[in-house]
Amino acid sequence: MTAREAVRQISAELAAAGCPSPRVDAEWLVAHVTGGSRTDLYVADRPLLEEELERLRSLVSRRREREPLAYVLGEWGFRRLTLVVDSRVLIPRPETEVLVERCLELLEGLDNPRVLDVGVGSGAIALAIADERPDARVVATDSSAEAMAVAEENRRRLALNGRIELRHGDLLAGVHGPFDLVVSNPPYVAVEDMPQLPPEVLREPRGALVGAGRHELIAVAARGVLESGGFVVLEVGDGQAQSVAAGLRALGYEEVATTADLAGRERVVEGRR
Ligand SMILES: C[S@@+](CC[C@H](N)C(=O)[O-])C[C@H]1O[C@@H](n2cnc3c(N)ncnc32)[C@H](O)[C@@H]1O
Fold first, then answer.
1. Atom of ligand 1 nearest to the CA of 91
2. From ligand 1's centre to the CA of 141, what distance in Å?
3. Is the CB of 266 under 6 A from ligand 1?
4. What DSSP letter does each residue of 75-109 carry, written as one string?
5. Which pTM value belongs to this model?
6. Which of 71, 72, 81, 113 is 20 to 30 A from 202 (CA-CA)?
7. What element of type H or E holds 63?
């Protein structure tokens, strides 16, 4: 079977299993085992080796069981980075790339910025900021020891060890400021919304998804570690921006503003201390 034939066959199998984007997933899986890009599959088709087919069969059967594509591949792209991801961490999302973009804009013109990321997960936010602002000093926390292990692995693989301090703990516990910016993508899915989530999302850690009132808790704690004039920048769920913005104003934050994601939904809320 050639790579292109495999894409066709796997695409049909994934469609039958109810996967929402079977063709793209099939391309990712075949490209992953052949070691090329998705485009390569169309530029230079070739017969698959027996060991490639064997590996492919095992990956496809995981995806057919609706395991998220990122976990099946074991890695996922986030801004300029490729991060190791598995079921211990949330899969980094495109809207979080917008959150990082906004943080980078707010840090423009500030030398050696000090940044705190609350709920580091895979390390997506903290590592992307450290990568794109080589003069930044980043501290990141997470209450999940399993997530910390993944963030540590990504930090090591990306050779960002000296630039990011990882702390296992609740919210901002044990963290000492001052910081110029506190960023967080906290769990914000309401427990009653869980049954509506796709099966893939339900495979992600519950502690990374489900939460209520975390934005306010973080905004309260951030006041204690932010430099005067520093920023808190929070990712919010669809429809939560206005209430989180009102919460920041009530806590005395100034210049409260929102940023929309690529789909035009307000997903980032910021305030200035
Ligand atoms: C939505 S995920 C975000 C992960 C990553 N920052 C990203 O954007 O892809 C939330 C993270 O917060 C962590 N978390 C949940 N409750 C926490 C708490 N009380 N203190 C610190 N981290 C917490 C979870 O373990 C999870 O890794």
1. 9
2. 8
3. no
4. EEEETTEEEE--TTSPPP-HHHHHHHHHHHHHHTT
5. 0.97
6. 81
7. helix 50-64
Q: Please, which contacts does 143-149 make with residues 24 or more away whose CB atoms are closer than 8 Å?
A: 143/119, 143/168, 143/169, 143/170, 143/171, 143/207, 144/88, 144/205, 144/207, 144/208, 146/88, 146/89, 146/205, 147/88, 147/89, 147/120, 147/121, 147/122, 147/205, 147/208, 148/120, 149/88
- DSSP letter (8 states) at residue 48: P
Q: How far is residue 129's CA from residue 205's CA, in Å, rounded to a whole number?
A: 24
Whether the CB-CB separation of 147 and 121 falls below 8 Å is answered with: yes
Q: What is the Cα–Cα distance from 136 to 110, expressed in whole angstroms?
A: 9
How far apart (Å, rounded) are the C-alpha atoms in residues 177 and 180? Answer: 9
Residue with tokens 């963030």: 151
Torsion of CA 6, 8, 11, 17, to 10 degrees: -90
Per-residue pLDDT of the chain (273 residues; tens, 9 = 90+): 999 999 999 999 999 999 999 999 999 999 999 998 899 888 889 999 999 999 999 999 999 999 999 999 999 999 999 999 999 999 999 999 999 999 999 999 999 999 999 999 999 999 999 999 999 999 999 999 999 999 999 999 999 988 999 999 999 999 999 999 999 999 999 999 999 999 999 999 999 999 999 999 999 999 999 999 999 999 999 999 999 999 999 999 999 999 999 999 999 999 999
> Which residues are within 8 A (CB) of 64 and not within 5 positions of it... i.e. 6 or more apart?
13, 14, 17, 19
Cis upstream peptide for 178 (omega within 30°) = yes
Pocket test for ligand 1, best of 142, 236, 240 (most atoms within 8 A of CB): 142
How do residues 40-83 score in pLDDT, each as one tens digit?
A: 888 889 999 999 999 999 999 999 999 999 999 999 999 999 99
